[in-house]
Every structure is written in structure tokens, then in C-alpha cells.
Amino acid sequence: MRQVNARATGTSLRSIVRILTPAVLDGYSRKKDKTVSVRFITQEMTSVEIQLIDSLLEEYGYLYFQPGQTINEQLVAEMEQLPEEQVVRKTPSQRLRNVLYVYHKEMGIKQPFDAFYAQEMENYIAQIKRRLP
């Protein structure tokens, strides 16, 4: 069963798009901020399927990988019905720190990350304080 599903469950792109396709877990790497980068290899995809994946770049979502078996519609339906409290999420502060880490790395900032993080947080705090009445 090979498909890239777009299921209508809401109004925004994030809430309607699901990707379901056979894949091989190709590798992973641990990141300094304790996150993990995971790589998969799929079968050949059409340009429409690739556009769908492109539209999801930088989106936050969930990955479910089941080795050696096909995934049937019942399992897909069960996954889509998972209660929010069963889904593990990062806290907003963890997300902000991770984004700052990626920014620090991508921009090639020479300052050590911990010092950069402290400086950025102080700048943000000062910005919020200036908005107070």
C-alpha cells in the first residue's frame, strides 16, 4: 500500500495532510541539543507527492514507523484518533531553545551557544518588559 494521503479533518494545510508511504529507515544522528535527526528512503515519488512533502518542510508533526508490515486503514484511523494527552510534546521553552540552537548553527555564530542563548533570552525579556504599561 503506497500513498501520500491528504485527509480532510480541518481547514488548514497542517490539519489535512498526512503522509503514509513505505520507507526504509536509513539512519539517524544525535544532535548537540539532544534531538535526533532521522532519515528514511522511500520508493520513487511523483512530482505531486514531492510537492506535498515540500509544503510540509519545517512543520511540526509526528512520525510513526512500523517495520516489516503494511499499515491498514484501521490502524491509520486509530492513530488519527489519539488523544492529545497521549502525544508527547516539547514545552514552548524547549522549542524556543531548539530553534535558537538551529539559528546559532545555521548562521555560523562563533559565540558559544550557551552565551548566545543567555544573550538572546535577555534581549527577549527586555523586549517584553518594554511592552509593559
Question: Could you explain how this protein is built, in words?
Answer:
The chain is an alpha+beta fold and 133 residues long. The protein has 2 domains: 13-84, no CATH class; 92-131, no CATH class. Helices cover 41% and strands 11% of the residues. The chain has 5 helices and 2 strands, in the order αββαααα. The protein has helices at residues 13-16, 47-55, 73-80, 92-106, 113-131, and strands spanning 23-30, 36-42. Strands 1-2 form a two-stranded antiparallel ribbon. A hairpin with a 5-residue loop joins β1 and β2 (36-42). α4 (92-106) crosses α5. The radius of gyration is 19 Å and the shape is elongated. The relative contact order is 0.11.
Write the layout of secondary structure elements.
Blueprint: H1 13-16, E1 23-30, E2 36-42, H2 47-55, H3 73-80, H4 92-106, H5 113-131
Antiparallel strand pairs: 1-2
Helix pairs in contact: 4-5
